[in-house]
Specification:
The complex is a heterotrimer.
Chain A: H1 6-14, E1 18-24, H2 27-42, E2 46-52, H3 55-65, E3 71-75, H4 83-87, E4 94-98, E5 101-102, H5 106-109, E6 115-117, H6 130-133, H7 138-150, H8 152-155, H9 158-183, E7 186-187, H10 191-201, H11 207-222, H12 228-245, E8 258-266, H13 276-282, H14 284-290, H15 295-308, H16 312-316, H17 324-338, E9 347-355, E10 361-362, H18 363-374, H19 383-394, H20 399-425, E11 430-431, E12 436-439, H21 447-450, H22 453-470, E13 481-486, E14 495-501, H23 513-524, E15 528-529, E16 537-541, H24 545-556
Chain B: H1 17-22, E1 26-31, E2 55-59, H2 60-67, E3 73-75, H3 83-91, H4 98-101, H5 105-112, H6 120-144, H7 147-154, H8 159-179, H9 190-203
Chain C: H1 4-15, H2 26-51, H3 58-93, H4 99-103, H5 107-126, E1 146-151, E2 156-159, E3 165-168, E4 173-177, H6 178-186, E5 190-192
Antiparallel strand pairs in C: 1-4, 1-5, 2-3
Helix pairs in contact in C: 1-2, 1-3, 2-3, 3-5
Chain lengths: ~550, ~200, ~190
C-alpha cells in the first residue's frame, strides 16, 4: 500500500509502540535512520536498529527479531522484493518500507494491509495498473473444477474456450507488463530527504537533521544514481531549508554550532583535505576530461595551473598549506578557465558545513568518507561495525571518525586511479559486442578495495569515462560497461563480483543489468548470488564466469 | 566509607597495606642487651645469641618495639634521613627523585620520629618542608598532563604523593566530563573492564 | 628475618588491584600460623624461666612478642582487605561474581559474600514504599528515562519490560528505558551512545 501522509499513517501509528528498523548499509539509508532515531528519541518510541547488507542478512535479521515488535521499518532495502513472500511475516505485523531503489515490487505496492510503502513515487515513475497484474483467481478455479466434472461436453463449449483464450492473453499481457516494468532498475528520491520532510512536518527539524538529509541526497549525486533534473529539484528544496534554518549571523549564535552554507563547489574529490593536484588526478570528472594519466594530460594540467597563476609547488602541498589568497580565489580562477579546458561542469551547487573554528567540510567529502568507512581497508571490521562507524562519523563531536574515513577514501581513490591506469595502459577494456568488458586480475593487491559495492561502482564509472575519452570511435560512448573483480572479502573462495553500469552517452540513469544478470544466471545455471539490493552488482563463482558472459552477450545482442 | 580502615591515610592505620609496607623498611640498630637464642637473625655472626654490640639492620616495626622504652637496641636513622640527604632535600626538594630514595618517605619518616632522639625535631621539620615544596608541582602536573605523560610524571614521586597525584587526575577527568556534558553517560564499570582485559589476554 | 612470610601476603595484595583478587593463599597462611606457634612456644618456655628470676631472657621475649604482633597484624590486614575488595565487587559486578573470581575465594569468604548480598537486598527492599530502591542503579545522575545503547557483543534475549524482550545482537542499536539496561551497560555488554 502506498502511504501518502507520512505523519498520520506512519508516525502517529507507531507512537508509543516499539519498532524495529532494518537499515541497508548505504549512506542514504544510514542518514535516514539517524534522522528517524532522533525523532523517535524525542517521542520516546522504543526502537532497535539493525544494519543489513544483503538479502540474506535481511531475512535472517527478520527471523531473529520477528517476535520482538509489531512494526518493522525497512530503509533502502526490501522494496523490490515481494516482502510477504520472502519474509512471511505473522498476521499482526505491519512492515513499513522506505526504499529509494526502483522499481518497487508490485506485490508490495498493492498489498492491502501488511506492507506500507512510505517512499513517494515521482511523476515519471509508472506503476502497472492493478487490473493488469492481479486478477480474481477464484473464478478460474471454479471453471476448472466444473470443467472436469461435466466431462467432455463442456470442453468444447464456446464460452469456456473464449474464457481460456482471454485468460491466456491476459497472462501474456501481464508477463510483458511486468517485464517492461522491472527491466530497468533505477533510483528514486533520497530516503533521508523523505525523513527530513517528515521531521519538518512534525516541526522537529533542525540543522543537524538537515545536514544528514543533505549528505543522503549528495550520495545520489556523487555515485550518479539520481538523474540530473531530480538532483536539481532536491538541491532547490534543500536550499530552501538551509536558508530557513541558517539565516542568523555568526555573531548571534554560539560558535560551536553547525552552520550550513550553500555555494558553488568544485567537483574535485576531497580537495580541501588533499593537495590540489592529487585531488584533480583522482576526481572522476577532472581526470577523465583532462586525461591526466597521459603525459599530454599532465602537461595540460600544468598549463592550467600556470595560467591561473598558482605555483606548482603549492598545488602539490596539502590544500590547507596553500596561500590564503590563492585559496580564496581558486574557485573564481577555475571558473574562468573551465570553458577553455573543457570542464564546463567543474562548479556545481552544493552544501558545506562548518562548526566552530574547524575547516569547512563539503557534503561530498562526507559521502566519500562514509563510503570508505563502509568498506574499510582494514581486514578485521565486520560490515555491521562499519555501518556503526558511518553513523558515528555523522554524529557531532566525532571528528576523528570523519578523519579516518577521509584517509581511507584517499586510499580508495588512489587504488581506483592505479587500476584505471593499468586498464588503459594495457588496453584491458575489451569490446564484447553489446558491451565493454574489463577484469581486475586475480592477485592484484588493490583487489581488496574493489570487493565492495560502492568502490566497485566508482571504479566502473571511472574506467568507462576514461575509456570513452581516449577511444577513437564514437561507438564506445554508447556502450555500457561490465566490470568484474575477484571478491577477496567473501567467505567462499573463488568468487568474483560483477558490476554493470549504463553507457555515458545516456542521460537517464536506468540500468538494465539487474534483470540481464538474473536471466543470464538462470539460463546457464551459474552459481550466482543476487544478494545485493543494488541489483547491478552480483556475486558469481569464478568457474561459471565465462559461460555467464557468453549468455549475457547473446542476451543483449 | 570515608573512614575505611584500610585506605591509605595520613596517619598510620592498623589495616592499611601501605602502612605495613612502609614499616618494613630497614633501620640500622645496635643491640644494647643480649638476646638469647636469637643468633639466627644475624647471618654474619656465628653464635647462638645476639651479643651486645651486634650491629644489625632491623625492620622499623621491630626497631620501634625494641627501642622505645625497653632500650634493648639503640637505633640510628637510615641513610636516607641523615645529614647528607637532608642537605640535598633542603637545597631543592622539588627536583629530588623521592621514589628511588625511599618509596614511603613520609610514612617512614613519621614512624622514625620517636627513634630519632635529638634529631627528631629536624626530621619532623624536614618532612613538612619537603612536602610543602613539592606539593605545588604535584598539583600543577596532576591537573594539566595528558594521559601519556602521567606515567613519567609519577615516577619521581613517593607513594603518598602518587595518591595525591592520582586524586588530582581523577578530579580533572571528572571536571572534563562535566564540562563536555558527558557526565551522565553510564560507562562500563572499571573493574569489569580490567577483568575483561585480563580474560581476553589470557584467552589469546 | 622474622615475619617475612606474612609480608608476602601483604605484598601479594599490593600487587593486585582493581577487579583482580588473587587466590586465597592457604599455604602461606598456614606457614605464618606455624611460625607464630613456634615463637609462642619459645616464648612460653622463656617466660617460665624469666618468672623464675632469669632476666636475661627478657630481650628475646620482647623480640618474639613483637614478631607475633606483626604476624597477627599482617594476617588480619590480609583478611580485612580481601573482604573489602569482595564487598566492592558486589557493587561493580553485581550479585553474581564471574567464575574465575569466585574460584579465588575461600569458603568463609563465599559465605560472607552471600550474607552481604542478602543483607544488601533486604535493606534495599526496605527503602521507600513501593517495594524498595535499587541502590546499585543510577551510579551517575541520569538525564533521561530512555537511553540509546549499542550492543557490543551477542547476548541473546533480554527482557525490557512486562513481556517485551529485545534480541541483543552485536552492532545493533536500541532505545530502551535506562532502568532496564543499566546493569548491562555496567557489565560492558551495552554501550551508551550520546
Amino acid at each position: 500500500m502506498l502511504v501518502s501522509d507520512l505523519r498520520k499513517e506512519f508516525y502517529d501509528v507507531i507512537k508509543g509502540k516499539r519498532i524495529l528498523v532494518l537499515v541497508h548499509s548505504d549512506i542514504d539509508g544510514i542518514c535516514a535512520s539517524k534522522i528517524l532515531q532522533s525523532l523517535f528519541r524525542a517521542d520516546h518510541i522504543l526502537y532497535t536498529v539493525v544494519p543489513v547488507k544483503t538479502r540474506s542478512d535481511l531475512v535472517s535479521a527478520f527471523e531473529q527479531h520477528r517476535e520482538q515488535a509489531r512494526y518493522f521499518l525497512l530503509l533502502n532495502c526490501g522494496g523490490c522484493l515481494d516482502l510477504v513472500d520472502v519474509l512471511s511475516p505473522p498476521e499482526d505485523v505491519k512492515i513499513f518500507v522506505a526504499d529509494n531503489h526502483r522499481p518497487l515490487d508490485v506485490c508490495n505496492i498493492y498489498n492491502g494491509d501488511q506492507v506500507r510503502i512510505l517512499s513517494q513515487l515521482g511523476e515519471d515513475e509508472e506503476v502497472p495498473a492493478f487490473e493488469d497484474v492481479f486478477r480474481e483467481e477464484e473464478s478460474e478455479d471454479e471453471d476448472e473444477d466444473s470443467d472436469e466434472e461435466d466431462g467432455k461436453r463442456r470442453r468444447f463449449d464456446e464460452e469456456t474456450l473464449e474464457r481460456r483464450r482471454a485468460r491466456r492473453q491476459w497472462h501474456q499481457q501481464r508477463h510483458k507488463i511486468i517485464f517492461d516494468y522491472t527491466q530497468f532498475s533505477y533510483y528514486g528520491s533520497s530516503t533521508a530527504m523523505l525523513m527530513f520532510d517528515l521531521a519538518w512536518k512534525l516541526s522537529k527539524d533542525n540543522n543537524e537533521l538537515l545536514w544528514w538529509a543533505i549528505v543522503g541526497v549528495t550520495e545520489g549525486q556523487v555515485f550518479e544514481r539520481t538523474e540530473q533534473d531530480r538532483c536539481v529539484l532536491a538541491t532547490g528544496t534543500l536550499q530552501g531549508h538551509v536558508s530557513r534554518l541558517n539565516h542568523q549571523t555568526q555573531d548571534s549564535q554560539p560558535l560551536d554550532c553547525l552552520r550550513i552554507t550553500f555555494e558553488k563547489e568544485l567537483k574535485l574529490a576531497l580537495y580541501r583535505h588533499w593537495s590540489l593536484v592529487e585531488s584533480m588526478r583522482h576526481s572522476l570528472y577532472a581526470s577523465t576530461t583532462l586525461k591526466l594519466w597521459t603525459l599530454r594530460g599532465e602537461k595540460r594540467l600544468q598549463e592550467l595551473l600556470a595560467e591561473m597563476g598558482l605555483p606548482l609547488v603549492q598545488c602539490r602541498q596539502l590544500y590547507s598549506g596553500m596561500d590564503v589568497n590563492l585559496r580564496q580565489d581558486l574557485r573564481s580562477l577555475l571558473e574562468e578557465k573551465s570553458e577553455k579546458y573543457g570542464l564546463p561542469d567543474l562548479l556545481f551547487p552544493s552544501f558545506s558545513a562548518s562548526r566552530g573554528f574547524r575547516i569547512k567540510v563539503g557534503s561530498a567529502d562526507y559521502v566519500y568518507s562514509a563510503a570508505a568507512l563502509l568498506e574499510p581497508p582494514q581486514k578485521d571490521i565486520t560490515p555491521t561495525a562499519a555501518a556503526l562507524d558511518v553513523a558515528d562519523c555523522l554524529a557531532v563531536g566525532r571528528e576523528e571518525v570523519l578523519e579516518r574515513g577521509i584517509e581511507g577514501s584517499k586510499q580508495q581513490l588512489s587504488a581506483i586511479y592505479r587500476q584505471v591506469q593499468t586498464f588503459l595502459d594495457m588496453n584491458q577494456v575489451i569490446s564484447a559486442g553489446p558491451f565493454l568488458y574489463a577484469t581486475v586480475i586475480q592477485g592484484t593487491p588493490d583487489a581488496w578495495f574493489f570487493s565492495a559495492p560502492h568502490c566497485l561502482t566508482l571504479l566502473a564509472r571511472f574506467t568507462l569515462r576514461a575509456h570513452v575519452s581516449v577511444s577513437r570511435g564514437r561507438k564506445s560512448g554508447a556502450l555500457p560497461l561490465v566490470l568484474t573483480s575477484p571478491d577477496v572479502r567473501a567467505a567462499q573462495p573463488d568468487t568474483c563480483l560483477v558490476c554493470g553500469i549504463p553507457p555515458t552517452s545516456e542521460d537517464s540513469r536506468r540500468n538494465f543489468f539487474g534483470k540481464a544478470f538474473e536471466q543470464a544466471a538462470e539460463k546457464t545455471a551459474s552459481r550466482a548470488e543476487l544478494e545485493f539490493f543494488d541489483t547491478n552488482i552480483i556475486r558469481l563463482s569464478v568457474d561459471d564466469r565465462s559461460k555467464f558472459f557468453d549468455a549475457l552477450i547473446s542476451l543483449l545482442s | 566509607m570515608s573512614a575505611a580502615l584500610h585506605y591509605p591515610s595520613y596517619y598510620p592505620s592498623y589495616f592499611s597495606i601501605e602502612d605495613i609496607l612502609a614499616t618494613n623498611e630497614k633501620v640500622p640498630c645496635k643491640f644494647e642487651k643480649t638476646a638469647c637464642d636469637l643468633g639466627f637473625l644475624d647471618p654474619s655472626g656465628g653464635s647462638k645469641d645476639l651479643e651486645v654490640g651486634t650491629k644489625l639492620e632491623l625492620p622499623c616495626w621491630l626497631a620501634r618495639a625494641l627501642a622505645s622504652r625497653r632500650q634493648i637496641v639503640s637505633c640510628q636513622l637510615p641513610k636516607t634521613f641523615r645529614e647528607r640527604y637532608r642537605e640535598i632535600l633542603k637545597a631543592d626538594a622539588a627536583l629530588v627523585d623521592l621514589h628511588t630514595l625511599s618509596p614511603h618517605f613520609y610514612e617512614l619518616g613519621q614512624h622514625l620520629l620517636p627513634l630519632a632522639g635529638p634529631e627528631g625535631t629536624t626530621l619532623g621539620l624536614l618532612l613538612v618542608e619537603t612536602l610543602r615544596e613539592r606539593l605545588r608541582s604535584i598539583m600543577d602536573t596532576s591537573l594539566n598532563t595528558t594521559e601519556d605523560d602521567a606515567g613519567t610524571r609519577q615516577s619521581k614521586l613517593d607513594q603518598l604523593e602518587r595518591s595525591l597525584f592520582l586524586t588530582g587526575r581523577k578530579t580533572f577527568r571528572d571536571h572534563q566530563l562535566w564540562l563536555s556534558r558527558r557526565a551522565h553517560i553510564v560507562t562500563t564499570s572499571y573493574m569489569v573492564t580490567q577483568h575483561n582485559k585480563r580474560k581476553f589476554s589470557e584467552v589469546s | 628475618m622474622l615475619s617475612e612470610k606474612a609480608l608476602e601476603l601483604i605484598k601479594e595484595l599490593d600487587r593486585s588491584k582493581d577487579g583482580k583478587l588473587p587466590a586465597f593463599n592457604e599455604d602461606i597462611i598456614r606457614k605464618v600460623l606455624e611460625e607464630m606457634n613456634t615463637l609462642f612456644q619459645q616464648n612460653q618456655r622463656d617466660v617460665g624461666e624469666a618468672a623464675a628470676g632469669e632476666i636475661r631472657y627478657f630481650p628475646s621475649i620482647h623480640l618474639r612478642h613483637a614478631a607475633l604482633d606483626r604476624n597477627k597484624r599482617c594476617l588480619l590486614a590480609y583478611l580485612y582487605n580481601r573482604l573489602e575488595r569482595i564487598r566492592a565487587m558486589r557493587w561493580e559486578f553485581g550479585s553474581i561474581l564471574p567464575a574465575d573470581i569466585r574460584a579465588n575465594l575461600c569458603e568463609p569468604e563465599t559465605q560472607w559474600f552471600n550474607r552481604y548480598n542478602k543483607n544488601l537486598a533486604s535493606y534495599m527492599r526496605s527503602l521507600g514504599e513501593a517495594g524498595g530502591l535499587d541502590l546499585t542503579q543510577d551510579t551517575k545522575p541520569p538525564k533521561n528515562l530512555y537511553v540509546e545503547v549499542r550492543c557490543l557483543r551477542d547476548y541473546g534475549e533480554w527482557e525490557v519490560e512486562e513481556g517485551d524482550t529485545v534480541v541483543l545482537q552485536k552492532d545493533t542499536t536500541h532505545y530502551l528505558p535506562l532502568a532496564a539496561c543499566h546493569h548491562l551497560i555496567r557489565q560492558g555488554v551495552l554501550e551508551q551512545v550520546e
